[in-house]
Amino acid sequence: MAAEEELDITVSSSLHMVSAFLAMEPPNVVISFAREFGEGSITESVQSCIWHHCITKADLKWQGPYLKRFLKKLILEIESSGGLVLDELYEQYASYMISLQNNDGNKENFRVLKTISFLFPNESSGIVSCPKSMKFEVRLQCSVNMLEGDTGCSIWPSSLFLSEFILSFPEIFANKCCFEVGSGVGLVGICLSYVKASKVILSDGDLSTLANMKVNLELNHLSTHDPVHHKKVHCVCLPWESASEDDLQCFAPDIILGADIIYDPSCLPHLVRVLSLLLKHNKHSHAEVGARRELDSLPADKLLRHPLGKGPVAYVASVIRNAETFNYFLALAEQAKLVVTDLTEKVEVSKFLPYLRSYQRSSIRIFRIHV
Disulfide engineering: 43 pairs with which of 38, 57, 89, 243, CB 3.0-4.6 Å? Predict the structure, then answer.
């Protein structure tokens, strides 16, 4: 009997196991889900599921070293508990040993292909503006080493959180022109397209990051040059320090987004200037500005859904790694007459990534910024 018939892949533990594998979580994480799926042991049925839904779906070009490490740990885990290992797993591991033996210490900076699966609870399958589906998968070419000059091509925790925020409140972004500052791998933009934003503009100041971002849009069937459909995802090169007022005000977004953009003190004056110009492309009366400031006292459900007048609003997710740097950002925002509101404790963002053990949501805060 085929694995698809033997085991229900929609069971949470199996779904988490497969999703963790495709996202290239540490092998021990995937194996822990496999044990849970097998009610304490990695049975032959569980191994068959791993074979059909993980190993055969993987690409040696992109995931070779990870596959080798995963199979080695999986086989050792099964053997140490006295279980029988499927012949297919032994044979595949031997094949990887041969094909990768000359490349193995190789270049941790190489790109890999991860699949991030947003898992919707059954009752959430009818999310406003979202297609009815159990999950939403995003394929991303990214770097495995975010600390060695490839930061723009890495998946940062705040971009995962901001994506969950978008999927939690899709009606906020549907039919809106959305502009992301520092878009990195493009994950946030892909989620904006999924909830039917009318226009998505992704920006970054690094040309190699932009090139990688465009690859990711193509991987997710979002062409930046679509001659048929008027709705497009646009990618623009936007170094904060050299962006002119004319450059920025021509975008006229309804919503500005940013993930992990508050980190370098030397960049913050330029960032605040960019945010200020994007947020002030429409003039407000004194009464309207006062009304917008009063929104901060509203409960979360009304806060997010309240019409904010004609002016745009920004949502920024960030890990505050250095309090002094963040306080500097707040001071610059105040000088620019921007109102920064911490929404972290006011809104409940759905946990659509329960299998990502390496993703620490508790360290991330989300802010709303307006004039």
Answer: 38
